[in-house]
Amino acid sequence: ADRQEAARAELEDIAGQIVAAEEQADVLAAQAEEQGQEEGARGQRRGEDCHTVVHSQFSTFLNVPMEVWGMVYYAITFIAYTLLVLYPPMKTPTLTLGLLILTTFAFLFSLYLTAIQAFVLKQWCTWCLTSAAFCLIIFSFAMVALPFDFFSLFP
Fold it and tell me: Which of 30, 32, 103, 120 is 20 to 30 A off residue 51, Cα-Cα?
């Protein structure tokens, strides 16, 4: 049990570091876009155009830009995991389930957005794909850190 708790704590720490890195990447992407560096970047590959993706009809959800949704998600995730690491008594079934639901939704939504890039826009945004990869990593850590065997729920 102690070994499992240590592994969970380590995973939560790594997840927190990943979230912090993603938040920094979001800030840098916003700064680059403001300076016009994102559009027509050197070394751009065919089919890779962040400008097309982040300014498409799919760039908002409920009239809020995807970048804002991403920053809110990563901020909530970072704060929640930081609190869990610093103050373990906060780890309640409700908080754990809430984080799992949030993480699962973010992961599935990132899959949807990646499919939009691939099949509808036929353009790739490196920042968007990086965010999707972070969602996958955080989701994977969340599944590993579950206090029970998730797959035992399925016969």
Answer: 103
